[in-house]
Amino acid sequence: MDPARIPLVAMRNIALSFGGVHAVDRVSIELHGGEVTALVGHNGAGKSTLVKILSGAYQRYAGTIFIRGEEVAIASPRDAKAYGIETIYQTLALADNLDTAANLFLGRELRTRWGTLDDIAMEAEARKVMGRLSPYFERFKDPVRALSGGQRQSVAIARAILFDARILIMDEPTAALGPQETAQVGEIIRQLKADGIGTFLVSHDIHDVFDLADRICVMKNGHIVGTACVGDVTKDEVLGMIILGTCPPSATPGPGAMTAVS
């Protein structure tokens, strides 16, 4: 296979049950470099469980995961990080009392040769990565509790990519943000795409999905209903996939698809 066509992530026949309930059942999905693949579906559809398997938070009982064409074992979040996978949860998990640089290096602080915190080096690196993602960001000395929602999201994204992550999992990145902040996060995601980073976008917002994603993967009852390029389906067709499980002709049906819409 052409190396350029090898996906960053390929999950094959992934399965996981909780108490006899198939949360994820025979799910296969791919993510390529410079691509945003949206995972959509009702609560309980299985999308969050699927990405938690990739992030190492849950352990699959069946299926295989490939990273850049190599089969891998992901048994913990530490394993996921070692393969360049970072997760940005809806809560962001920022330390509100600390500034941007301290949040970016939390748990991985830089130190001087005397063993003290190297605040100058950490701020320099923070300015470098934030300058790439959000060029107009200047509030490096403020605690992150004082930042806007969009600025906080940019700090969380910067922390994820600071240590060379190539695969991002973003959980509802624009939830509770206003239009201006949502647009700001959208610009950051487009910059990540330009840098070749692949992103799984978990979202309930169909409008955001159509604005930000390249492909949409709809899940229902632990199955893939269908996958389609954003330009090949309408919002109504995606809603039909989510609600009814019907897959339009322009989408590739999955095991969870009902009879295709004529």
Element-by-element helix/strand order: EEEHEEHEHHHEHEHEEHE
Spans of at least 5 consecutive residues whose pLDDT stays below 50 are none
| Helical content band | 25-40%
Q: N-to-C terminal Cα separation, in Å?
A: 35 Å
Assess the beta-strand content as a share of residues. 15-25%
Q: What is the overall pLDDT average?
A: 90
What is the fold's blueprint, element by element?
Blueprint: E1 9-18, E2 21-31, E3 36-40, H1 47-55, E4 62-67, E5 70-72, H2 77-82, E6 85-88, H3 100-104, H4 119-133, H5 149-161, E7 167-171, H6 179-194, E8 198-202, H7 206-212, E9 215-220, E10 223-229, H8 235-243, E11 252-253
Parallel strand pairs: 3-8, 3-9, 6-7, 7-8
Antiparallel strand pairs: 1-2, 1-4, 4-5, 9-10, 10-11
Helix pairs in contact: 4-5, 5-6
Give a verbal description of the structure.
With 262 residues, the chain is an alpha/beta fold. It has one domain (3-93, 160-253): Rossmann fold (3-Layer(aba) Sandwich), CATH 3.40.50. Helix content is 31%, strand content 24%. The chain is built from 8 helices and 11 strands. The radius of gyration is 19 Å and the shape is globular. The model has no long low-confidence stretch (mean pLDDT 90).
Comma- or semicolon-separated keywords:
alpha/beta, 31% helix, 262 residues, Rossmann fold, globular
Describe the structure concisely:
By secondary structure, this protein is an alpha/beta fold. The protein has helices at 47-55, 77-82, 100-104, 119-133, 149-161, 179-194, 206-212, 235-243; strands at 9-18, 21-31, 36-40, 62-67, 70-72, 85-88, 167-171, 198-202, 215-220, 223-229, 252-253. It has a single domain, classed as P-loop containing nucleotide triphosphate hydrolases (Rossmann fold, 3-Layer(aba) Sandwich), CATH 3.40.50.300.
